[in-house]
């Protein structure tokens, strides 16, 4: 076990994910965790994350110097690096020139962190984001990397197995960053790197059994997407028929999707319930234009449906509600220390619904999308379920800009269906991570036959990504776009113009709302 000690930075789970990629099991703990508790976990190593603070602010997170004397190897990153220097008697000062982004960095190859990276030139690019720097090393340390403005871009105390880097090795922009983390884990901590998703699966099944107990029941909020399907398999493995999967069809699914989900689960030996709630959701959404407001209404309504279903199935206050929340849902909903980008539906349950259950289980909340897929394979889910493209809980409501109506949902469903058909026909469906149509609220003038039209513009979105935290737009060939465009304007009423969205994430997001 490696511990990632969280000081509130943006990339904390990314560090955890990199550690898992190196085949080492890892958990994220708050920096407030008592030293005794950390020691009892007997970790092979500890990684201090970055954080938004300066070590000199009184309110900044601190750590007891004791942690450096446990004999456990430590790697400090960014704020974690400065905190290590400061706590051990070095000096941290404000940079004359702050460094943000790609920075040319010179490494000392004799440092274990940078060892054995044969193709690493002495200079390579690291990703920096800091306004403070280490101006004086603590006793026993030496600098092992520098940049033009930062004399201590990395430092080590080899005897005590303390290492630190000012830059972010966990982000892709740092060349050889993952190798540096791998070096820390294997060369410094002595890990073998044999942890796998299979181990994670076994451990999670066991901890779910422990938490739910011998008689506890679980109501699973199932959207039929990848995350909740994987969670269904995980819970079925853990508690068998004490699991009830509730699939809420809010009338904002894609064409045929509700029936497809039902058919997929009919083949499976799990308790599956479909609730048709179109009326309920559309009436709550009537006239609502603001994206966050739509999300809040839908998130709350999902909660009330689950509460009603729990009553119906005699699920008590001693039982549990489970959701397939994954890490990007948590972080983008602003539940870490990051900003709220958009509130994902499963982070919006009303308090009274949460209180209706003993607890809400979210065992996937540390995983990224591709890790969830790997877990699904581990659990023996068929490839077509595991590789389905994601579909957001709020469904078409966030792909209809402005107020949602049944007519608009039907129009969008028809257009989206054609888009999907043509992409599949062109053999591109496996290459594009997610693609869908958006009904914009923009109307424009067209000419059809001999007459003037004044109809809606449909936007097509297609992205490639692995983790859905960042994404590129898919390079769909013009001929394919042409075929899609021609079919949609001919076959779908109320649409007379098609545009293709060519923004990346960031600065855009994948969904439009
Ligand atoms: P964005 O639009 O934030 O989307 O770039 C990233 C991924 O998350 C999906 N998404 C959601 N998934 N509930 C979900 O389960 C939501 O409320 C939600 N909002 C966005 C989106 O489809 C993309 O795959």
Automatic annotation (TrEMBL):
Q: What pathway, per the record?
A: Purine metabolism; GMP biosynthesis; GMP from XMP (L-Gln route): step 1/1
Q: Which residues form the active site?
A: 78, 168, 170
Top-rank taxon, per record = Bacteria
Enzyme Commission number, as recorded: 6.3.5.2
InterPro entries, alphabetically?
A: Asn_synthase (IPR001962), Class_I_gatase-like (IPR029062), GATASE (IPR017926), GMP_synth_C (IPR001674), GMP_synth_GATase (IPR004739), GMP_synthase (IPR022955), GMPS_ATP_PPase_dom (IPR025777), Rossmann-like_a/b/a_fold (IPR014729)
Listed under catalytic activity are: XMP + L-glutamine + ATP + H2O = GMP + L-glutamate + AMP + diphosphate + 2 H(+)
Q: Does the keyword NAD apply?
A: no
Keyword S-adenosyl-L-methionine annotated: no
**Any one Pfam family match given in the protein's UniProt record, by short name:** GATase
Q: Which GO terms describe its biological process?
A: asparagine biosynthetic process
GMPS ATP-PPase domain segment(s): 195-388
Name the UniProt key words of this record, in alphabetical order. Answer: ATP-binding, Glutamine amidotransferase, GMP biosynthesis, Ligase, Nucleotide-binding, Purine biosynthesis
Please state what class of enzyme this protein is: ligase
Checking SUPFAM superfamilies in the record gives:
Adenine nucleotide alpha hydrolases-like, Class I glutamine amidotransferase-like
A single Gene Ontology CC annotation of this entry is:
cytosol
Q: What does this protein do?
A: Catalyzes the synthesis of GMP from XMP.
Q: This chain belongs to which protein, by name?
A: GMP synthase [glutamine-hydrolyzing]
Source species, please?
Ruminococcus champanellensis (strain DSM 18848 / JCM 17042 / KCTC 15320 / 18P13)
């Amino acid at each position: 076990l490696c511990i990632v000690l969280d000081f509130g930075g943006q990339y904390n789970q990314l560090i955890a994910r990199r550690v898992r990629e190196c085949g080492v099991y890892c958990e994220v703990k708050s920096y407030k965790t008592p030293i005794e508790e950390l020691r009892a976990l007997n970790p092979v190593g500890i990684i201090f994350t970055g954080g938004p603070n300066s070590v000199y602010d009184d309110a900044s997170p601190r750590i007891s110097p004791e942690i450096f004397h446990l004999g456990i190897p430590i790697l400090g990153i960014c704020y974690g690096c400065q905190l290590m220097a400061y706590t051990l008697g070095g000096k941290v000062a404000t940079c004359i020139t702050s460094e943000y982004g790609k920075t040319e960095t010179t490494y000392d190859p004799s440092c274990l962190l940078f060892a054995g990276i044969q193709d690493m030139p002495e200079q390579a690019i690291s990703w920096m984001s800091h306004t403070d720097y280490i101006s004086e090393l603590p006793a026993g340390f030496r600098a092992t990397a520098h940049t033009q403005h930062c004399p201590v871009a990395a430092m080590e105390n080899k005897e005590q197995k303390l290492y630190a880097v000012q830059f972010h090795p966990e982000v892709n922009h740092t060349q050889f960053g993952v190798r540096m983390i791998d070096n820390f884990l294997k060369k410094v901590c002595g890990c073998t790197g044999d942890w796998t998703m299979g181990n994670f699966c076994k451990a999670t099944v066991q901890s779910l059994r422990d938490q739910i107990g011998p008689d506890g029941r679980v109501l699973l909020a199932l959207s039929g997407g990848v995350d909740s399907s994987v969670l269904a398999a995980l819970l079925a493995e853990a508690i068998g028929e004490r699991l009830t999967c509730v699939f809420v069809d809010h009338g904002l699914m894609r064409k045929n999707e509700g029936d497809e989900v039902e058919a997929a689960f009919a083949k499976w030996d799990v308790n599956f319930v479909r609730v048709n709630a179109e009326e309920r959701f559309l009436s709550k959404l009537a006239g609502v234009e603001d994206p966050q407001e739509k999300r809040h209404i839908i998130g709350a309504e999902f909660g009330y449906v689950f509460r009603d279903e729990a009553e119906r199935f005699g699920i008590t206050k001693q039982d549990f509600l489970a959701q397939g929340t994954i890490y990007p849902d948590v972080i983008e909903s602003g539940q870490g220390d990051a900003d709220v980008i958009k509130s994902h539906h499963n982070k919006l349950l009303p308090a009274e619904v949460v209180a209706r259950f003993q607890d809400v289980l979210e065992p996937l909340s540390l995983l990224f999308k591709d890790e969830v897929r790997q877990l699904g394979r581990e659990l023996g889910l068929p490839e077509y379920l595991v590789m389905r493209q994601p579909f957001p809980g709020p469904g078409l409501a966030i792909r209809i800009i402005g107020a949602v109506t049944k007519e608009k949902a039907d129009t969008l469903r028809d257009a989206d269906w054609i888009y999907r058909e043509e992409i599949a026909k062109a053999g591109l469906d496996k290459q594009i991570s997610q693609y869908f149509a958006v009904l914009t609220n923009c109307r424009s003038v067209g000419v059809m036959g001999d007459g003037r039209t004044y109809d809606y513009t449909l936007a097509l979105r297609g992205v490639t990504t692995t983790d859905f935290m960042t994404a590129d737009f898919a390079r769909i060939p013009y001929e394919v776009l042409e075929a899609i465009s021609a079919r949609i304007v001919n076959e779908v009423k109320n649409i007379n113009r098609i545009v293709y969205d060519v923004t990346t994430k960031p600065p855009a997001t994948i969904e439009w709302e």
